[in-house]
Amino acid sequence: MRHGFLIPALVAGTMVVSGCAEDGKDTVERAFRDVNVIDETNLNDVMLTVADPNEAVSYFSRATKAEPDRIDLQRGYAQSLVRAKRNTEAVAAWTKVTKMPKATAEDSVDLADALIRTSDWTKAKATLDSIPPTHETFKRYRLEAMVADANKEWTNADSFYQTAVGLTTRPAGVMNNWGYSKLTRGDFAEAERLFGEAIRQDQTLFTAKNNLILSRGAQRNYTLPVIPMDQTERAQLLHTLALSAVKQGDVQTGKQLLRESIDTHPQHFEEAVRSLRALES
After folding, report:
1. Is the separation of the CB atoms in 237 and 210 below 8 Å?
2. pLDDT of res. 281
3. What is the mean pLDDT of the chain?
């Protein structure tokens, strides 16, 4: 009788061990799947930030072909195309993303961004108009301001720029754009103020420094402002100021500024030398 009870007990024990083995295998497989997801997410992030843009395009192109229904991969492909400056392809990629079931309002904002990069202002405006007004983000209003600028809707542009500035902790870039908008309208004093604000927010923004010089030159103010600049930047800004003076008809002042620019530059400043030679001949 003891043997009769022993066999079922052994069988039951085997089943328990087998069950444990199966549970352990499932756990290991799930763990590997989780690790793969984490690794893939990290790789996707790397591809979208530090990888070569065209390598990122190739990576996401392969990934989307393998799993075409994954919207995160489709977004990665579209973003990598923008990074690679393949803007026409990026428009097509973002259009595809916006038509997927899990598409968001931000995807439409990114489509509008790609359309602006191809100078398709009409479609960009239509895309932005289709986004619910409750979707209030810095990027959305920055693009709205750019579209309004392109359409010379100055009141709307100023309103959108103001809103965008209030939605970011790093407003230097949008202030520079706003200042350039004022510069193109002929409001040189306000442009100068906005460029100055942009430089205070980001002292490394050379574009804003150069634009500041253009706005001062347009007012026939040919002195450099007190802003952070190294020796090379100082020479380049003097060159810009010289060209502004020549454009205003103040040729002698332009020549003087060009000479100062050449003397200031720590190396040979070929562009300024050519400009001076052209004026003197």
Report:
1. yes
2. 82
3. 89
What does the alpha-carbon distance between residue 272 and residue 256 come to, in Å, rounded to a whole number?
Answer: 11
Q: Is the pLDDT of residue 65 over 70?
A: yes
- The pLDDT value recorded for residue 42 is 78
Average pLDDT over residues 239-259: 96
93: Cβ contacts below 8 Å, ≥ 6 apart = 74, 77, 78, 81, 114
Q: Please give the single-letter amino acid code of residue 73.
A: L
User: Under 8 Å CB-to-CB from 13, ≥6 apart: which residues?
Assistant: none
Residue 94 contacts residue 78 (beta carbons within 8 Å): yes
Q: Measured between alpha carbons, how far is 28 from 220 in angstroms, rounded to an integer?
A: 74
Band (pLDDT 50/70/90 cuts) for residue 38 is very low
Burial state string for 206-229 with b = 16 or more CB within 10 A and e = fewer than 16: ebbbbbbbbbbbbeeebebeebeb
In contact, 243 and 278? CB cutoff 8 Å: no
Which among 191, 230, 226 has a CA at the least distance from the CA of 211?
191
CA distances from residue 114 to 5, 82, 109, 245, 277 in whole angstroms, order as listed: 76, 7, 9, 37, 42
**Confidence at residue 46, expressed as pLDDT on a 0 to 100 scale:** 83
Burial profile 231-259: b = 16 or more Cβ within 10 angstroms, e = fewer: eebbbbbbbbbbbbbbeeebeebbbebbe
Res 43: pLDDT: 80
CA 60 to chain centre: 19
Who's near 208: CB < 8 A, 6+ residues apart? 172, 175, 176, 179, 195, 198, 199, 202
Predicted local distance difference test score (pLDDT) of residue 48: 85
Give, as one character, the DSSP assignment of residue 70. Answer: -
Place of tokens 């973003």: 79
Read off the DSSP letter of residue 267: S
